[in-house]
């Protein structure tokens, strides 16, 4: 009888140990699943899918500081392209200048007003002149705020009988502002000034 009781007690110990191991295993599995789910959710939040040409492209969101130099240079490039890309069409000029003025402060508006008062845009339309901008490089100093920049470019002025190339060097400062539909990079150009704008060469057409 005592032998039977001993066997029952031993079997109960084994069952209890087995049950304990199952419970610990289940807890460990739950913790592992919870951890992996949290990690997956965190990584998913850093991914953005952009639909382009009916294809889903994955983009990864990063801190603004990581791409500040790239975004600042692109902001400067887009402003100059909008401001200096002109065709003999009043609507095209107005559309491009409007886009440019969203990216800069009153210093750009003053230059636009001066050009307009001097009949620059009227001459573009009357002479059937097109102007394109070829940007060579943009430098931005992100070590000091506001960020100082310089833009080196060439203007290509297409007239009826000739093509004129002019060198263009400008400088200014970039200030952080809120992102918007009209200002996707969230910068504003301040104290924008033209350092050089002179003829390089003229080609007959």
The proportion of strand residues reads 25-35%
Could you give a short account of the major beta sheet? 4 strands, antiparallel
Read across the widest sheet, the strand sequence of neighbours is 3-4-5-6
Element string (H = helix, E = strand): HEEHHHHEEEE
CATH 2nd-level architecture of the largest domain? Roll
CATH superfamily of the largest domain: VirB8 protein
Oligomer: single chain
- The CATH class assignment of the largest domain is Alpha Beta
Mean pLDDT, rounded to whole units? Answer: 86
CATH topology of the largest domain: Nuclear Transport Factor 2, Chain: A
What is the straight-line distance between the termini?
118 Å
Structure characteristics:
205 residues, alpha+beta, Nuclear Transport Factor 2, Chain: A, 2 domains, four-stranded antiparallel beta sheet, 6 strands, 34% strand
Task: Spell out the blueprint of helices and strands.
Layout: H1 2-45, E1 47-52, E2 55-60, H2 68-84, H3 90-101, H4 106-117, H5 120-126, E3 130-141, E4 147-158, E5 162-176, E6 187-204
Antiparallel strand pairs: 1-2, 3-4, 4-5, 5-6
């Amino acid at each position: 009888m005592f032998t039977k009781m001993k066997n029952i007690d031993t079997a109960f110990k084994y069952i209890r140990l087995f049950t304990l191991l199952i419970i610990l295993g289940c807890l460990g599995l739950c913790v592992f699943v919870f951890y992996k789910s949290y990690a997956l959710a965190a990584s998913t939040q850093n991914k953005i899918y952009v639909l382009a040409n009916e294809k889903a492209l994955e983009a990864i969101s990063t801190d603004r500081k990581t791409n500040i130099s790239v975004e600042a240079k692109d902001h400067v490039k887009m402003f100059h392209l909008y401001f200096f890309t002109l065709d003999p069409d009043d609507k095209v000029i107005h559309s491009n200048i409007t886009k440019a003025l969203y990216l800069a402060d009153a210093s750009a508006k003053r230059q636009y007003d001066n050009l307009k008062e001097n009949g620059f845009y009227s001459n573009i339309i009357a002479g059937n002149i097109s102007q394109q901008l070829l940007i060579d490089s943009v430098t931005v100093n992100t070590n000091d705020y506001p960020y100082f920049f310089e833009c080196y470019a060439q203007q290509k002025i297409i007239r009826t009988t000739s093509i004129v190339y002019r060198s263009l060097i400008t400088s200014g400062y970039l200030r952080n502002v809120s992102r918007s539909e009209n200002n996707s990079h969230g910068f504003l150009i301040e104290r924008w000034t033209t350092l050089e704008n002179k003829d390089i060469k003229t080609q007959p057409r």
